[in-house]
Amino acid sequence: MLRFIHAADLHLGNTGPSTLGLSPKWVERIKNASYKAFNNLIDKALELKVDFILLSGDLLDTSTPTLRSQLELYKGLNRLSEANIKVFMVGGNHDPLNLKKAQSEMPNGVHLFGDKPETVSFKKGDLILAEISGISYPTAKVTEDLSLLLKPGSEGFQIALLHTNVAGYGNKDNYSPSELDSLVRTGFDYWALGHVHTKAVLNENPYVVYPGTTQGQHINETGPKGFYLVEVDQKVKIEFINSAVYFWENLEFEAFGTLDKLDLAFEELIAKAFEIPRVYRLKIKGRTPLYNELLSEKEELETRFKEASNYALESLVLEILPDLDYTKIKTEESLPGEFLRVAEKLREDGFNEEIKEVLAPLYDKLGDILDPLEANDLETILNGSIALGLDLFWRGEKS
Amino acid sequence: MKIIEMGVKYFGIFNDFKVNLAPGMNIILGRNEAGKSTLLAFIRWVLFGFTKGSNKYNPPSGAAQNGYLLLELDDGRECLIRRQGKTLKGDLEILLDGKSQSEDTLENLLGSITENVYRNVFAFGLDELQVIKTLEDDEVSSFLYSGGLYPGTLSLASIDKLLKDKSKEFYSPQKTATRPAINKMLPALVEIDTELEKFSKEPEEYNACLTEMASFQNELQVLIAQIEEREAQKHWLNLLAQGWQLWKDKAAKEEIIKELNVLDQFPLESVNDFEMLIKELKNCEEELAAISYRQKQQSEELAQIKLDESIINYQAEITVLNNELSKYNEWKINYSDIDLKVDEQQKLITKRIQIELGDKFNLDSLMELKLSHLLNEEVGNYQEQFAQSQEILRQLDSKYQTARQENEALSLSHLQYKKELDAISVRDNYLQIKDAYTTYKQLAPSRDYLKQRIEDLKAPKTKPTPANQWVSLIGTLLMTVLSSYFFVLNKWYIGGLGLIFVAYNLRSYFALKKQEKRDLANWQEEEADRVQELASLKIELEEKQKFFVEAERTLNFSRDVLPETLTRLGEELILEGEKWTNKQKLTEKLTEIENQKQALENQLVLLTNHMKEEREKTEKLQKDWEGFLNANNLPKKDPINLLAWLSAARELQARAEELKNRQNEKKLLLKNLSEFRRKVDELALNLNLEQPTQVAATVLEWQNQLSRNLENFKKKKELINVIGELDLRTNDFNTKIKSKQKELALLLKKGQVKTVDDFRILAKKAIQKEQLKRDIAQIEFNLSSLVKEKKELLYQELSEASDETLDLKKDKNSAELAKLREKEAEINETLGRLAEKVSHLEKSRESEKLLLTRTDLSQEINNAAKKWAELELCRYLIAKARQVYEREKQPGVLKTASTYFETITAKRYLRVISPLMEQRFEVITDTQEIKRPEELSRGTLEQLYLCLRLGLIEEFAKHQFSLPLVFDDILVNFDPIRTLSTLQILANLKMHQVLFFTCQPHLIDICEDNKIDYSLTKIELTN
Fold it and tell me: Which of B352, B504, B681, B927 has the least CB density, counted as fewest CB within 10 Å?
């Protein structure tokens, strides 16, 4: 029987979201989460005495990783090496072979694939139990499909190790783009992929697997994050194990009539017992007569609900609207009616070039500094704009 | 609303002007200066009052402005509004359906339309029409430009500005902008990135350090091996050096042995015995010499000793005497001492007895006296009794004296009070007189009153009598007749007066009669009361009289005592009363003193008796005392003196006893002394000596002689013994010496020498040789223990070594080693530095901190960016909506205005638009050309402005209600065709009443010609 762990996208050195306003305990937890998650993985490997570990790239957070992130990686690898657990790993877009390494040599029993396809075997005694083929990114931005270069060996369980963007999965940068069909057809038993941060079993026979990241880094990486434990006997059995130190979670409240209800909701939340704490993005949405009060009290609310022992608040998003009859306004031959119709059309068109043009003076200019706006961000911004516009149209209204 | 009737009492040139108006268009025709504009102002004034400026419309007469509008409201009710007064506003009077209303009613009727709006939009003249400014007041423009766009009050421009300003708080694309949040944060971010860039080299640096460290470590390994080799060499050379010293030492010692040249068979083991033998032999000879010397001495001493045998024979007797000698001396001293004292004491005591105890006593009779201590007690008892009776007598006497003195003092004060009492003179019956006086004085007034009252009541009151009325009656009758006469004479008014007089008189008469009757009844009642009171007063007077008579008798007053007498008596009684009280007090005092005196005299008698008794008791005690003295053979003295005598007698008795003891002691001493003398004399006889004069000295001499002889006797015996012993020892030594000499000869033979000295020289050399041999063995052992292995090599090298070669080798090795050590230290230092750097890099969290700061900053920038995006998008959306709206939809005002404008200009112009962001208008011509107002001719411009106003009016009508429109000759610049179409439009404003003031009669013709509905009102100058 063969037993191994498949993980990817450790992103060691990632410091998580901004921790402004959080207590030291939470700051420590968030900034060290990537290391802690990696340690969780190693602890589990030692506990289960697995045969080997597959790491499918992006072990480090950036292609200019901090020294600490590298040292933490080596520290972990050394622990595995000491426990005689083999490690097979490839570099991805965040840890290509050309990155500035803190250590020239890998610990004993750790195999880092080079930029040429290579197949190594895993033996127990003289018996070859598995053969692992892999290839690392020579540089950060690889645009050719490296999967095409990998060919299975002849003996034992055949594993392919690659950092790749399989077409149609995830919305990550399209590095080493590959096609699922093509992967399935190559003859490997298990494609150990990395790159997409959400765990996904793309195919089962043969297995094509993204284990996702070991620790969610932002609100788009919600829920448990970890790695797969794979057992190969007569059959292949895979099991997901969490390693995340905290979970990201979206939290939405309808804009209640009163702020007291919000307090109540939070009291309930604080009372909840989680085994693993949560980092929330809290969204308050919907029509409310408290539109202006909520806006002006946003910071105060954020501070008030900033954290508890079981959760921290990443941000408070107000997607609230003034309390107006939108259906009616939308049908009116008035400027607000026109305004709403224009906005809705923008939404329906799926945030096309038009909106990009509007935001270009900032987002084009500072594209490398600003986070790209995801659909939900745009949604929030549009909602904010609508609310703001309507509020202005109604400001000073004679009651 | 519509104006049905307009009434001007006073307003400007108008005076009592009234006009009725029709619901539709009213053309009010008047020549220039007929007052058309004044009427326009009048309507405005009545509805709103004037809000500003000076009032130009005060009537020339100086009367207050005054006028009214009778309105028909949209709901059909009638409302009268009257305003009057000289002020801008004047006083308002409102009647709705005939009922008076408050001023608020008018405000409600006019809604939100202010005087300003009314003047600019509803009731204007050519002046207002021509000026676009009048439309730009906020109240109006809000209807024009954004009226109906949205419910709020912010203009689109201000909304846009607000958004733009807000957006600029977050970001500005301008490179120079520094204030917006993002622009402000960007440099910080760049700075962090630059900083981070530095840290990105850390891994490489770390790697380089590790590599360098590894290379240095290798070098260090080689170096350490070299050092170890050198250290081993150094150790070997040290061993060699040590060995070399030993080696040299050994060689030297071997040389000495060679030079000593001593036989190996010399009896070295006997050297000690030999020396010992020599020493013993010498000792024996010396001792022998000493013994013979001592023998000679002892014999000489023995010959010198002499003995006295006789004195030794009386050894016991001499010893006894010698032992008693000290006692003898003592006795002798004591005797002479005591002999003197006994005589002195006897004289002293005899003398004291005579002095202290009296002639009656001597030493013997004193000793016979029995002076027990009981005697003292008895004497003490007597003494106490004497003292007691004396004390009692003393006390009694003192009491007696005090009482006597008190008695004398009392007698003196008694005499004095008696004198005082005799001096006071008071009547004996003072009390009786005082009581009678009091009674008299109390009763006198009431008696007098009673007497007076009785006197008053004795006479009855006068009975009232009826008055005579006849004269009056006759007068009346005469007046009656006279009056009748005057009637007859037909002088009726005089007769009438007379009758009135008659009637009056008759009425007075009857009233008088009635009064008289009432008075009589009263009198009878009073009279009965008087008789009754008189009787009761007489009885009271009699009772009082009885007491009174008694008091008079006591006072010895006659019936008619004078009031002065009574007053004088009163005064006398007051004075006498005081004396009376004093007398009473003194009498009491005297009685008290007499009582005290009697008590004192009784006490004096008692004390005298008591004293007599006590004296008798004392006499008896004296007799007893004397009896006691005789019985005990004691001198006659009082108890205190006797006690002193007794103590003296006792002391003298003790002295006498002591004297007796001394005398006995003296006798005993004398006996002892003579006994000792006898013994000495006896011994002297036995020793054939004369009787000694100095007893003590002789005894001592004997004793000395005895001791000396005894000592000599002992010495002699000892010497004889010693000499015998010495003889024996001499023999012993002689034997010993012989045997030793034999042994010595044997040893000399063994050593192959003849003399003792030769033996000794040879022995010394043999010992030295032996020591050297041992030393060499030790050196060889040390040498071999220097190394465990390579012993042969060591010996080999030592055999070839020299001081110079060894030093040379050592120096060379040390220099090499120092060099290597130095290099080792250098490498270690470098390694230390590298390790420190590695550790520093490992521990450094600087880059991480920067990353965290970057994350925070980036988060803030992103948040700001989203906020900016929201604002910009909002702006964009509003702009886009506005564009659509502007292009596709127009506010109602502009729509209406467009229609009218199109009609008036006969489709020369199609539309009026207002760019939404700007407060201005544009017109679109039939050729789709856009023209600005300033490009239009005067007339067309006036038409445009009229159409805009009509648009506004319609818009108002939608939300509110109609107001009468008043136009003052606004068509003067219109060409006939446009005049016609304008009039048609005005006539068709069904909802509104139009008052069109004009001075142009041709307008009537136009209306007539074109069948336009209108009502005509002409106004003429009234004065």
Answer: B927
